[in-house]
Amino acid sequence: MALQPLRRVVLVTMAGVGSLAGALVLASDLVLRSSTAAIISDSPKEVMDEAWQIVFRDYLDTAGNYSEDKWKAMRRDVLTKSYGNTKDAYEAIRGMLNSLDDPYTRFMDPREFKEMEIDTSGELSGVGIQLSLDKDTKRLVVVSPIDGSPASRAGVQPKDVITAIDGKSTRGMTTEDAVKLIRGAIGTKVTLELSRASGQVVTVDLIRDRIELNAVDTRMNNAPGGTKVGYIRLKQFNANAAKDMREAINELNADGAQGYVLDLRSNPGGLLMASVDIARQWLDEGVIVSTKTRDGVKDIKRASGRALTDKPVVVLVNEGSASASEILSGAIQDNKRGTIVGMKTFGKGLIQSVRGLSDGSGMTVTIAKYMTPSGREIHKNGIKPDVVADITETQARQLKFEELGTRSDPQYRVAETELSKLLRSASQPPEVLFEAEVKVPELVEN
Q1: What DSSP line would sit under 169-210, residue for residue?
Q2: Read out DSSP for 252-293?
Q3: Does pLDDT of 32 surpass 60?
Q4: Which residues 6+ apart lie within 8 Å of 384 measured at CB?
Q5: For the segment 281-300, what is each residue's pLDDT rounded down to a tens digit?
Q6: Based on C-alpha coordinates, what's the Rg of the chain?
Q7: How far apart are CA 395 and CA 430, in angstroms?
Q8: What does each C-alpha distance from 204 to 45, 142, 168, 194, 405 come to in angstroms?
Q9: At 116, is the secondary structure helix, strand, or coil?
Q10: CA 165, CA 182: separation in Å to the nearest integer?
Q11: Residues in Cβ contact with 5 at an 8 Å cutoff, skipping those fewer than 6 apart
Q12: Angle, helix 272-282 to helix 324-334, in steps of 10 degrees
């Protein structure tokens, strides 16, 4: 089961900036941003035709609901109708895409499209709150304020319950509803009413500001016996993820790490190339991932021979590890680079291309599926761990956010044990076996 503190995490940001780790990134491994038209057009039908053409050219049908003849008939149908405004045209586009029954192929209006672009950039603006909806109480709970953010400076604490936003009760709100209210322009104020476990109710005024989101958390842990374990938690695959991972590995190497635990639990994915770049930091050789389009063409990504470390690594995964996380863990598993510990991953193995449309709107479209180096399809199958390590509901509730990757974390303890086994195996000299006595012929002088 997934760790409770990390479920359905949403980053609260300014207007025009979208949620980071919830449905958005989980829904797509982003591989391309390109405009399909060189000029701006206000014609709703032109935008509709652009969206139709993208699906017609590139869409990979995984649900079995796409028919070229039906898709052509749908184009004739939607283009013969009149649309009084852009909103009606957008709804028609969404209707076309919904017929594919593919949750990852979707349309975004200009505002939503801008949010996606910033979501994956790693550079955000807002108050710096990671927000979750408690599945039992349905209350909006602060998972953690980002270090140095307006929320952190104002004293917002993990597990604070947001009861009101600018005086409006949050009862019945979804995380998306709350995000819309908390967003706003840099320099503007939002007021949150917070309830704490002690019964105290506090009100904080937050001034929205620019925030740099770090994709990686890291620390050096001392395992029983004195082993120095480099712990790296990768939270998402954004544009900064590969750089942050490189810095983390180099720093822990310099500090004498003897092995690593790479934590991908509840990491919902992100940029495809970020996962490839990070895999190359761990793998010196071998295939990382291959992709297959509807034409059957495989795009094979390989290691580049420039791994940053060859020390043993254990990868932690759970049901919330998806897409790019599955590429990375699958590559490490199939290349026998390390041990995978935890629970079977989410099973999201489709790749979306992000396309900009001529009026500033955009869409994501499924264009390929990816496979592990051994040819396993990840979609709907996931990555099965080498060593299963579950966590109970009670353990998840009791585990504090800051205790992830410590001895208080049951799944981490299993990972640490497995790392010790790898270290012991690596320290033993190879055993030499002789099947029979070998006689060396005598030298004969001429």
Answers
A1: E-TT--HHHHHHHH---TT-EEEEEEE-TTS-EEEEEEE-EE
A2: HHHTT-SEEEEE-TT---BBHHHHHHHHHHH-SSSEEEEEE-
A3: no
A4: 340, 344
A5: 999 999 999 988 888 877 89
A6: 25
A7: 40
A8: 47, 13, 14, 8, 31
A9: helix
A10: 7
A11: 132, 143, 396, 399, 400, 401, 404
A12: 30
- Report the amino acid identity of residue 85: N
Triad 329, 226, 400: Cα angle to 5°: 60
Residues involved in catalysis: 323, 334, 348
pLDDT in tens, 42-72: 478 899 999 999 999 999 998 888 999 999 9
Alpha-carbon span 75 to 96, nearest angstrom? 9
Between 68-80 and 86-98, two packed helices, what is the crossing angle to 10 degrees? 170
Range of the domain at 379: 216-347+368-425
Same domain (yes/no): 389, 415: yes
Segment holding 50, helix H or strand E: helix 44-58
Pairing, β 350-356 against β 30-35 = parallel
Angle of helix 44-58 relative to helix 86-98, nearest 10 degrees, comes to 20
**Interval 16-33 mean pLDDT:** 32
How many whole angstroms separate alpha carbon 301 and alpha carbon 298? 10
CA-to-CA distance for 129 and 112, rounded, in angstroms? 20
Q: How far is CA 194 from CA 8, 160, 370, in A?
A: 20, 6, 43
Rounded distance between C-alpha atoms, residue 327 and residue 289, angstroms: 7
Domain end call among 184, 212, 240: 212
Q: Which two tokens stand for residue 48?
A: 């509709």
Number of Cβ within 10 Å of residue 46's Cβ equals 16
Q: How many domains does the chain have?
A: 2
Structure tokens at 360: 């500033």
Q: Is 84 left (phi over 0), alpha (psi -120 to 50) or beta?
A: alpha
Using the 3D structure, point to which of 164, 187, 212 is the last residue of a domain.
Answer: 212
Closest CA relative to residue 10, chosen from 171, 144, 159, 147: 144
What distance in Å separates the CA atoms of residue 261 and residue 259, rounded to the nearest whole number?
A: 7
Same-domain check for residues 304 and 325: yes
